[in-house]
Design brief:
By secondary structure, this protein is of the alpha+beta class. It is built from 17 helices and eleven strands. The chain has a five-stranded mixed β-sheet with strand order 1-2-3-5-4. A four-stranded antiparallel β-sheet has the order 8-9-10-11.
């Protein structure tokens, strides 16, 4: 099933632009920036960032919730080897290319960069990919939070891993493999154009930047993905230990051999075997989870605003008739930290052909959102709106049937005729 939310899985013309511009920008010295007066634009202190932006009010709100989820995901995924976030990261986010170009140190043709201190980027239009921001944001996070200097393949591979993540409103879903990226990786394997692992481990930042290649980014990302998810997570602990070893100034190659074995050719063969074993849409389940999380985030906000729906059709209708405009306006006044843009809901809402797979479960346990897969299993989105709004998805071996609506008591409308005696 193809969801409107999932259109980001299709090939994007911006991929090559990203690969060719972000690396050199991310390693710039911040000295020139410090010497130059920065533009004066509105500033927002968010949970993890000091955000400077000239975006309009709603786009600035969207940026705040996006970058908060982004930094939280960086932390959640790296907590075994990264420090705790104790300070806010500086971020300049410009509404258009013209204002972005006024920032000191901008590389012509780029959409964002990390200069060693500050993350600077052009904000994508509502509904567009934030891949550059998420990629460069990881470089900033890694520089500030991970001790030691990551080898370039790992730094760029991790940045791509997070850059491909999908924002769902309250969180980010990472670990996604688009069919397009899968085809490209398998293509490199088939035509024997993979860089030998020893060469990749030893590559310097200077060598990487002197011959920027989208293939290098793709291979680095695919290697990181394998180390995180390959063979049922077999290498996750070793990856964490490898990164900790790097903080002790050990060479990338030696640290890798210590944690993953000395036979790098055999290890690369395992990587090749795993990638070749993947089916045509290997993370379809993650895309489905992301979809359920997104819709559940909006269902939770409707509940917070005391708007309830009895059926999925009512929820879908409300997404297009202005109901959520009123809901988000109320939330902006009462609890702006949980505000979400309607554009995310508009892209995620199922159309008529998809609707039969979706059900609202309304019973004594509350309101939940169910997506039934083709095999009869289901994903169920639930939420809480107490002191803290939370959203989660659980898997069920069998889809639940919605509860029968309560029957109203039948009243006897017959008339009793009294007679006089």
């Amino acid at each position: 099933m193809t969801f409107k939310l999932l259109l980001t899985r299709r090939p994007q013309l911006m991929c090559l632009l990203i690969a060719m511009t972000i690396a050199c920008a991310s390693v710039q010295s911040s000295a020139a920036t410090k010497r130059t007066k920065l533009p004066k634009i509105p500033k927002y202190n968010t949970k993890y960032y000091v955000l400077h932006t000239n975006l309009d009010k709603d786009m600035a709100r969207e940026a705040v919730v996006r970058i908060t989820a982004m930094a939280q995901e960086y932390y959640n995924r790296t907590r075994s080897f990264a420090g705790r976030i104790r300070t806010r990261f500086p971020l300049y986010l410009y509404k258009d290319k013209e204002s972005y170009q006024t920032h000191p140190g901008v590389i012509p043709g780029s959409a964002g960069f990390y200069n060693g201190t500050t993350l600077v980027a052009t904000a994508p239009r509502s509904g567009r990919s934030w891949r550059v921001v998420q990629h460069e944001g990881f470089h900033q996070f890694a520089h500030k939070m991970i001790k030691g200097r990551l080898p370039v393949w790992l730094n760029e591979g991790l940045a791509e891993y997070f850059g491909k993540g999908m924002w769902t409103g309250d969180s980010m879903t990472v670990g996604l493999i688009s069919p397009h990226d899968l085809t490209r990786v398998k293509g490199m394997i088939k035509d024997n154009s993979l860089m030998p692992l020893d060469e990749m481990l030893a590559m310097s930042h200077k060598t990487w930047n002197s011959g920027l290649s989208s293939r290098n980014y793709l291979q680095a990302w695919s290697m990181v993905h394998f180390l995180v998810h390959g063979d049922n997570g077999k290498y996750q602990k070793a990856l964490s230990s490898y990164i900790r070893d790097l903080s002790q100034s050990r060479s990338s190659t030696q640290a890798f051999r210590n944690r993953f074995g000395g036979n790098t050719k055999a290890f690369q063969a395992s990587y090749v075997k795993w990638w070749n074993s993947l089916d045509d849409d290997p993370t379809a389940d993650l895309y489905e989870r992301a979809h359920v999380l997104t819709l559940t985030s909006y269902l939770a906000r409707a509940h917070y605003a005391r708007k309830k729906f009895a059926t999925m059709q009512e929820f879908v209708t409300a997404a297009g008739d202005g109901t959520f405009t009123k809901i988000m306006a109320l939330i902006a006044r009462r609890k702006s930290t949980i505000w979400l843009p309607e554009s995310l809901l508009t892209r995620a809402i199922p159309d008529a052909s998809e609707l039969p797979s979706w059900t609202l479960l309304v019973d004594r346990r509350g309101t939940r959102l169910q997506f039934t897969r083709s095999d009869g299993t289901a994903l169920i989105g639930s939420f809480t709106t107490g002191s803290k709004l939370t959203v989660k998805v659980t898997a069920a071996k069998k889809a639940e049937k919605p509860a029968e609506p309560a029957k109203k008591p039948v009243t006897d409308k017959s008339t009793t005729i009294r007679t006089r005696t």
